[in-house]
Amino acid sequence: MTAVTSPLEALPGGTSAASLQAAEAGRAWWTDAIIYQIYPRSFADANGDGIGDLPGVTSRLRYLKRLGVDALWLSPFYKSPQADAGYDVADYRAVDPLFGTLEDFDRLLHEAHGLGIKVIVDLVPNHSSDEHAWFQAAFKSPPGSAERARYLFRDGCGEDGELPPNNWQSVFGGQAWSRAPGDRQWYLHLFDGKQPDLNWDNPQVRAEFEDVLRFWLDRGVDGFRVDVAHGLVKDSELPDTEHRKENGVLVGPMWDQDGVHEIYRAWRRILDEYPGERMMVAEAWVTPQERLTHYIRLDEMQQAFNFDYLLLEGWEAAAFRNVIDASLALSAAVDATTTWVTSNHDVVRAPSRYGLSRPGTHPKGIDAAGEQPDEALGLRRARALALLTLALPGSAYLYQGEELGLPEHTTLEARYRQDPMFIRTRGADIGRDGCRVPLPWKADAPSLGFGPGDRSWLPQPVAYARYAVDRQEGVAGSTLELYRQMLQLRREHALGKGRLCWVDAGRDLLAFDNGDIRVLINFGTEAAELPAGSQVLLSSEPLKEPGELPANTAVWLTGP
Ligand code: GLC
Ligand code: CA
């Protein structure tokens, strides 16, 4: 009998860990995974204080299983004063009492694993909270102290240090420096003043985060979403800069410095010490997209969010085709998997973005004074876009509520807004609260079933009742049932593992084959013809005229 050799053993001698990983990459779970983002404070509230929590997530795991997701990504639930909704971490190893306890986390993880769902957690290494013990110590310690060396403290300019050390601006508006009381030093914060940037040239910072990784890996997490992965290392001169965006992305001496990659290589080695397939996904806003592939080289992370796809402007076949082609080619060049993203907790929800007169534009929030999206058109396009997106090879991220077709809250009053972006720009940037509104579970219940009572940390718009889970469950043609069908068929036809072959279609149409499925989407304003003899497996809208694909509609077809 011939021994069965595994593909790994069959590799020629002298192969590196990296090439082994490459050989395995074709099989690893994340290559075609559907990863569902949970924003814990807005998902489900178990104890009725108006803020979603970990027991709330655990109570809905069966819903997620039924939806058909492979993994969850949990936005931060760590101890935090919540100055940036938890992206300001005061203790990287503790659960904030708002969200529950470490035991609640362990239970969530255990039950998710029991259902075959992986769990990845958010890691926020660029900055801590100013309430982190390290920063508290730094504030009390003199300039030049070891305590200050873990952050980026610098002497101010001007006679008494009354001016900031350089001209850097915060992403959330205003200057990126705040002064330490009582001396001439300032500390850098690329985000809010309550989010001081850590100094990644300091070995203690590196060691600490390696230990934090192990803390969560030891508990059994399947991976990490790395927040602001392009920001950890700054040009050490901290030079003044011209503040500008290229392709919608901030560029400058604080972003995408080559030095970050060494950090991720070290983390990769740690993840590799653990059994199972642990992964990392980069939140890296970089341009051009070719730079993004550096983060997903074989010995670094496994995935990076595809923001070029997320930020695409317009509703045009050619633009989608270009970004799809570029994304597939670039990730193939580094043997990595492509990701597809259409919504997250930082941008206006897709049904609202695509209902604007300039579809797909991503204003930093929408308020009552701005253009209101066309709700029906936006939803129709978002559903068609989902059929396109979920038929693409690779892995896709869903943002909680996306499966309900949930729109942005576009008339949220200023008095409720909590996003530091809104606060620091005094409302000039409306901010992200509108995509973070608690989910509707039951149309007729107080807080729409978000919690047991009527409390909800942001008010839900009246329209959300129509989108409630209980209004959609079992209702043919509802967005929830559409997503369930899509995810099931995607799995049955192994679309995530497939290959895309474009098929010539008319202007305003995109058509491709992936395995035995043909996907067709109509970006135009007129109905188009469906290929003769094909059978419709799934359509984003009911097809009223046989043989016709209406505008803003997509279908999955099988051959004659
Ligand atoms: C990331 C998060 C965002 C947060 C920022 C600062 O961009 O996605 O929500 O505000 O980092 O941590
Ligand atoms: Ca709660």
Number of strands: 22
How would you describe the oligomerization state of the chains in this entry?
A: single chain
Question: Helical element count?
Answer: 15
What do the pLDDT scores average to?
94
Instruction: Identify the overall geometry.
Output: globular
What structural class do you assign from the helix and strand content? Answer: alpha/beta
Largest sheet: 8 strands, parallel
As a whole number of angstroms, the C-alpha radius of gyration is: 24 Å
Bound molecules: alpha-D-glucopyranose, calcium ion
Terminal CA distance: 43 Å
Classify the helix fraction into a percent range.
25-40%
Which regions are unreliable across 5 or more consecutive residues at pLDDT < 50?
1-16
Spatially, the strands of the biggest sheet line up as: 13-12-9-5-2-1-15-14
Proportion of β residues?
15-25%
List keywords for this structure.
single chain; 560 residues; alpha/beta; 8-stranded parallel sheet; 22 strands; globular; disordered N terminus; binds alpha-D-glucopyranose; binds calcium ion
Please render the helix and strand layout as text.
Elements: H1 17-25, E1 34-38, H2 54-59, H3 61-67, E2 71-74, E3 78-79, E4 91-95, H4 102-114, E5 118-123, H5 133-140, E6 153-155, E7 177-179, E8 185-188, H6 203-219, E9 223-226, E10 244-246, E11 249-251, H7 260-272, E12 279-282, H8 289-292, E13 303-304, H9 307-310, H10 317-333, E14 339-341, H11 350-353, H12 375-389, E15 395-399, H13 420-424, H14 469-472, H15 479-492, E16 501-503, E17 509-514, E18 517-522, E19 528-529, E20 535-539, E21 548-549, E22 553-558
The structure holds alpha-D-glucopyranose (GLC) and calcium ion.
Calcium ion binds next to loops.
